[in-house]
Amino acid sequence: MRVYVKALKARITASEGGSVKHVIWGDWLDVEDHPDRPDKYIVNWKAWNAQSNSVGIEKYVIARSDCQTEALLEMIFLDVGQGDGCIVSVPDGNSQRTLIIDAGERTNMHRFLKWRFRYVDDGAQFHAAVLTHPDMDHYKGFQPIFDDARISFDTVYHNGLMERVAAVESDLLGARANGQCTEIFPARDVLDNFLSVPARRGDKLYPKLLWTALQAPARFGDIRMAAVGHGDAAPDGRTYLPGFAPAGADPPSIEILGPVPETTPAGAPALRTFGDNPNDGGFNPGKTKNGHSVILKLRYRDFSAVFGGDLNRPAEDYLLRHYGEIGVAAKLSDALPKAKLRLGADLLKCCHHGSSDVTDEFVEAVNPFAFVVSSGDEESHVHPKPELLGLLGKKGRGDRPLILCTEILRSTPESRSMTTQEQATLDKLIDAVDTAANATDRMKARKAVNDFWNARFRRLVNVYGAITLRTDGRTLLIAFRKEKVKGSPWQLYKYSFTGGAWVGGAA
């Protein structure tokens, strides 16, 4: 039976005493009735056993009063290095539908999923993978996930643009005419027909990723474009991610705010080209694919969040004028009264990792009280830009808006060096592989090398850079792990929706 932690902070203790795990509001647990204590649950905690190379069950105990059956909305903004990666679990009765919105460039997301969803050893079915746009630091981390036969998705969403082998960079996104990209891939069959020609894929990584999904229909139910007009249409003209249009009492909803397609003179879908500056009529492949990121607005009761992809100045100018219903000659600030009604949210996943290539007006239109910046390690972009952090503080809601950055919250090194003794131990383990008498001994020796390495030199960013948000739509908890623990390992911020505003702070 699945339950969720009800207390802000709680501990589960090993049924035989000793071991303790710290959990927080909204953590899900697999429980069963305690045979001797009606006020307790037995927790079946799945854990990896390195010796047996398998998942085993550890038994813990938790008070029933610390549990609830209501699932919360959960968002985990993972430190994926340079890039974006977020896990969104939307309440669906006693369960949740989970979407992976981008996956960074490395294997962080794949490894985190295997830990977080401990049942992945038996197979994990996720609701959707959202590839916001064809930038490597957003999509490449999906490749090991798509290659993992234990993981499936009901739907894979993309922004409709497809990189391909091109003689010149200007042809990277295909045909263009009249300031528009005219090769758009709204449905699975259109994409399959295009990518079935190997020469178009070549050694490009983005086509390879989507071709992987196309070749496994049993694991990837549908592959389609997510954009305004390409989803579930509502009577008011808004577009929602399929299955997430508002319905019933207090429903979670996910609106698609971008890309906003245009049509060609022949009536076919197209996406506007973006240049280096707003309304300059130029074409920059990077600005165009970034500017047409899949932009989502998630709402649950009194809470809302906007996922900003890699928007840039030209794209924000375009979206603001669209939602503000103003022409290109008007001042951009004239868009704010109407644009705020569509773009306004309580939390903003900041555009482009804290780049300064943003408009003041876009941040003002969203006007959140909390920001999340996903930025990387050892990169040349200086993300987040100092001037961007200043802008967020200036344009954020309230006297002290909350600015959370995956890289800033994790000062722990991405990895650490070996000591002389550790190097000597590793050398001996490697020698044992080389001198193994048979295949069985060689396999055991290789496993010993892997266990040694994983135990000491795993990446630390997954633990200390992840930003977790939990809400029932009326109370909001934001949490991240402390690097040096005194008492609880969690730093918590708790907010309540009171008098039309979110009120709270450090808990």
| Percent of residues in β-strands | 25-35%
Helix content: 10-25%
Question: Would you tell me the overall average pLDDT?
Answer: 89
Structural class: alpha+beta
Strand order of the largest sheet: 15-12-11-10-9-8-26-27-28-29
Structure commentary:
The chain has 507 residues and is of the alpha+beta class. The chain contains 14 helices and 29 strands. It has a 10-stranded mixed sheet with strand order 15-12-11-10-9-8-26-27-28-29. Strands 3-2-6-5-4-1-7 form a 7-stranded antiparallel sheet, with no helix packed on it. It has a 6-stranded mixed sheet with strand order 18-21-22-23-24-25, covered by helices on one side. Mean pLDDT is 89; it is low at 458-464.
How would the blueprint of this fold be written?
Blueprint: E1 2-5, E2 9-14, E3 20-24, E4 28-33, E5 40-49, E6 54-63, E7 67-68, E8 73-77, E9 85-92, E10 95-103, H1 108-116, E11 124-130, H2 136-139, H3 142-147, E12 151-158, E13 176-177, E14 180-181, H4 188-195, H5 198-201, H6 205-214, E15 220-225, E16 232-233, E17 239-240, E18 253-258, E19 262-263, E20 269-272, H7 285-291, E21 295-300, E22 303-307, H8 313-324, H9 336-343, E23 347-349, H10 360-366, E24 370-373, H11 386-395, E25 402-405, H12 420-434, H13 439-457, H14 461-464, E26 467-471, E27 475-481, E28 490-498, E29 501-506
Parallel strand pairs: 10-11, 11-12, 12-15, 22-23, 23-24, 24-25
Antiparallel strand pairs: 1-4, 1-7, 2-3, 2-6, 4-5, 5-6, 8-9, 8-26, 9-10, 13-14, 14-20, 16-17, 18-21, 19-20, 21-22, 26-27, 27-28, 28-29
Helix pairs in contact: 7-8, 8-9, 9-10, 12-13
